[in-house]
Design brief:
Number of domains: 1
Number of strands: 8
CATH superfamily: Alpha/Beta hydrolase fold, catalytic domain
Distance between the termini: 27 Å
Shape: globular
CATH topology: Rossmann fold
Strand order of the largest sheet: 1-2-4-3-5-6-7-8
Amino acid sequence: MVTELSISTAAGAFDAIVAGPPEGRPVLLLHGFPQTALVWRRQIAALAAHGYRVVAPDQRGYSPGVRPGRPEDYRIGVLVDDVVALTEELGWAAFDLVGHDWGGAVAWWTADAHPGRVRTLTVVSTPHPGALATTLRSDRDQRERSHYMIDWRETPATEERMLADDAAELRAFYSEKVPQASAETYVRHLSQPGALTAALNWYRAGRPDGAIGVIDVPTLYVWSTEDSAFGPAAAQETGQWVSGPYRFETLQGVSHWVPEEAPETLSRLLLAHLQAHGAH
């Protein structure tokens, strides 16, 4: 049974959805743009059915209780601090970490900064930030794919454009790969006052404060061939940035929206990864 939870931290109260036995092995799931924790509902059900304790928060800016107005309040170090604060509030000394899209980027940085707490790492779509940086320098295809990030830093033209005509541009992102009911939920959520600006502030926050290193925790990376944001060069380069046990899975013919477009496949891969690395 999935329930809603408010998790209070020094930064504010995060909304979250929770499932699975309280004593189960803890798993934290981080969503990306432009979605919410509901992106994980199929994986949450699968994990809970296998006895895991699963928490998926609406991240900073997506939770109304943690929605600061300044772009600098969405720097990657702050987002990592949110993960630490959430898991400490939950009483989790160690946990399995899963992320998609921007949630994947936060997951990579968290595993780098706190390897002693991250039991396993699973990232969907998003290459290791070091691999992405390398590829942006060397691969024209990835530079073209990433150009939208520069466009979205405009303020407030981007959110006005995305929400115009009943959020037509925002709805188009889901490209009929996301269930319509879910897409409507996301659009309604991001149409709240200040919500889309907060979500876009993740792109406007500026460069990370430092460099990310090689990840040494057991890592599963799932990439899909029809991902419009992340191309094959960055996906293949990611393995060079993981020194721990590493599994790279490619989903043929699947778009960026993996958790909802290929939910059974992703849940199967995730469960196998967690079961393969039960000990910390």
